Amino acid sequence: MAVNTKIPLDNNYQSYLRRAIADGGTYEAISTVQFIDQYNRLLAYNPSLLLFPSTKKAGFLYAVTPNTGSSNFTATRSSNSGSYLSSNGTVKFAVANEPRLAYTSGTPNQFKGLLIEPASTNWHLYSQTMGTNMVTFGTTQPTRSVAVDITSPEGVYNAAKVTGGSGSAGSWGIYYIIPQGILSGSSICGSVFAKAGSNGILSVNYANQTGTGTGTSYFNLSNGTTPTAGAKIEDWGNSWYRCIMAPFTLNANANASFNLGVYVAPTTSSTVWSTDFTGKTMYFYGIQLENYSFDTSLIPTAAVTASRSIDNVLSPFISSSTSQWTIFFDIEYQGDYAANTGDVNGSPLIWYFRRLNSTQVNFWNQNAQQSLGSFTFSPANSQKRFKCILSFNGSTVNTFINGTKTGNQITPTNLTPFQTLFSAGTNKIQFTKTDLMAAMDASHIVRFAATYGYQLDDQSSIFLTGL
Predict the structure, then answer these.
(1) CB–CB of 27/52 below 8 Å?
(2) pTM of the model
């Protein structure tokens, strides 16, 4: 197919921005260097629908093409507790149904795309300031206060400051009693934002009622590293790190404690104390306990627990005069194992893009219970971003991931839903975390999505070699 490779970004993209603003929406001031090549490549193939999620308002995400209100994606998330990292590097909280357009952490931060997450609950109370439900511990009792000398990741003065008592001590810090039965027997992910004051070593620990630890993760806040297998540490800028401990399972028979401990020089197997802790400090913010083996965005709490509902972004009806079609999407996983449900609904056809394990992803047709092609990648690359195409020529389906054809051509068991996918005019594309196949996990970012009313003959050319 002949392709116009000189489509100017200004005319198309600026018109898209003007439409969003006129409708009361907002837009992200993004450097075009980040996306212009992929944007132009997708637009050059004359898409029937093109989503580059960079403009929004509560309940809507605006599509670039067609540049009319009929192309708006609907966005639902019934709770007000959805957080995300904004363009100025601070944590923001979206209102109900507001799409979250997120940025990378660290300095400098760059635009990522549309954040999609599962529902979750934060079981830890007073998550921001570590209120009176958290008890101080240590041979010489530390003190806890609201920090007035540094701002939290929100950019305001609502972090907790913990200061060591006089003299030498073993460990010291603050802890939270987890009531018996709340999460007993569940796989739990604990996380907290922490910043070094005059101490830079943090231990996050789960212990049963007798104080015997069943899981401890160490974090070095001076250099942003962790020696603990299964733990993660993320740079959130201004020397704040989100410390995510290795998953653990709660003791079902007793109360438990969730401990934030300050140490001098811990290893993965022992702790050495050799420094006077008098006046030593560390800062905390956004502590979270979730009923998952992975972390999600911060859910703020006060005197009671709080929940965030599932993200659900749904396209308008897609229609075409032909039974041939192509679907493209570009997503990036936030966790190690995940599934994006790119559901095309309104007909019997439901398809999924899912990560099977640490080295393989595939497409799956729920209706026919058959794989539409798999893709294996090197685990050494830790690949989490995938540009994907499903292309149907009227009888067979081709799948491509990152420019490489996956598997063989598939002749679906039931051709009807494939043939009527666009022509029926009742189908939609959905990005959410509901997965009928399995309980898959982790959050993901949607960077682009596009549909075409024909089969692309040169599918691999729509990809850029760099991810």
Answers:
(1) no
(2) 0.85
